[in-house]
Amino acid sequence: MNLMGPGGRQRNLASVLGLLHRNGPLSRAALTDATGLNRSTIADLVGELSRAGIVEERAPDPARRVGRPSPIVAIDPRVVAVAVNPEVDAITLAVVRLDQSIVLRERHEVPRAPAPEETARLIADRVAHWRTNTIPDAVIVGIGLAVPGLVRASDGLVRDAPHLHWRDTPLRELVEDAAGLPTRVGNDASLGAMAEHLFGAARDVGDVVYLNGGASGIGGGLIIGGIPVGGADGYAGEFGQNRPGIADESDRRATGGVLEDEVSRARLLDAVGLESADEPTLAAAVAAAIAGDDPDDPIRCEVERQRRILATALGNAVNVLNPSVVVLGGFLATLAEVDVDDLRDRVRGQAMPASTETLELRSACLAEDRLLIGAAELAFAGILADPALPTSAEDAERDLVSGAAPSSP
């Protein structure tokens, strides 16, 4: 297969960059095998990506002693995106490289749900600080936001993020105006599902149900036949808004409540005596609290109550969608990891047997990075589709800020 005009060249550049993005450094020989292109075409494409400052070439692996050594191609570490996850108790920001490594992360705790304008100002302030002090040589290709609420797929309008009290909020425009960088917005759980499907616990799995448990409740994402499913307007996956099946009425805490009212991070925090905590802190507190043998311990009882209700919700999802893997993130992973096999058995006990024969329950292996990596994927979407970036960081920043079309290398 040879290059065929500008469109073919763009597709081939995107193919090579996508392989490096998803798999990490590869030799030219491996890229040749994976793409079906010939060696001279791969050399030409790698050279173009290298001149654009997107990839770099390294010396061949000295351990390889058979045949001609093949140079190693890797993502240039200067290419980054800013990822943001606003929540009711904190705004988390990170700088994420195109190879998914996180350069830095900051958690800014807030006394109340932040306003959209506050979020935009914080992003702009931190980006300006990082450019001067932390990552002066980086090329920031854009900003991605993972928002706990309904985000319209067509334009990124936040239709309803109830816990943040954001309704019909033009968040993309607010952030672009404040920070001067291209911005994209998506639902946090859908982005977590995408990240785990591309790089984490559901990598290479075709049918996945992902549930994310955060400070704003429970959201979800779906991968069906290897394709992310967002629904007509991008609002699919709101498992937390379903009415839970509760077999024992003594387990109910919110009359007429939805799933996220019953299976709740806030209730877990209250049980372990914490007002606020990041994911690792809450997980450690729960593990320490249930380490004893007392079956009547209040914390253990609350954990078990939530696990019973979660198992029913997952059983319903398995009946409807027949996934091969269910991935749980955030505090839901904490609940599952108390005893994964037991939770899986409870789900199997409430679902059709044929649908659970090969079912696996997995914790999100990207852990607290999953939403940030998912948000960064939004920001990287443009460069991954069309890697024809400018040849210098200065040109890149100028074109990105002005909104100009990228220059050809």
Give a written overview of the molecule:
The structure is a single chain. The strands form four sheets. The chain has a five-stranded mixed sheet with strand order 6-5-4-7-11, with helices on both faces. Helix 8 runs antiparallel to helix 10 (298-321) and helix 10 (298-321) packs across helix 12 (340-349). It is built from 14 helices and 16 strands. The chain has three domains: 5-75, Winged helix-like DNA-binding domain superfamily/Winged helix DNA-binding domain (Arc Repressor Mutant, subunit A); 79-191 and 369-402, ATPase, nucleotide binding domain (Nucleotidyltransferase, domain 5), CATH 3.30.420; 203-365, Nucleotidyltransferase, domain 5 (2-Layer Sandwich). The protein has 409 residues and is an alpha/beta fold. Residues 15-65 form the HTH marR-type domain. Belongs to the ROK (NagC/XylR) family. GO terms for molecular function: DNA-binding transcription factor activity.
How many separate domains? 3
CATH names the topology of the largest domain as: Nucleotidyltransferase, domain 5
- Sequence stretches where pLDDT stays below 50 over 5 or more residues: 390-409
Strand content: 15-25%
The global form is globular
Radius of gyration: 23 Å
Give the distance, in angstroms, between the N- and C-terminal Cα atoms.
23 Å
Assign a percent range to the helix content. Answer: 40-55%
Please state the structural category.
Answer: alpha/beta
- Count of strand segments: 16
Total helical segments = 14
CATH class of the largest domain: Alpha Beta
- Shape-level CATH architecture of the largest domain: 2-Layer Sandwich
Q: What is the helix/strand order?
A: HEHHEEEEEHEEEEHEHEEEHHHHEHHEHH
Tell me about the biggest sheet? 5 strands, mixed
Identify the strand order in the major beta sheet.
Answer: 6-5-4-7-11
Return the average pLDDT rounded to an integer. 92
CATH H-level homologous superfamily name of the largest domain: ATPase, nucleotide binding domain
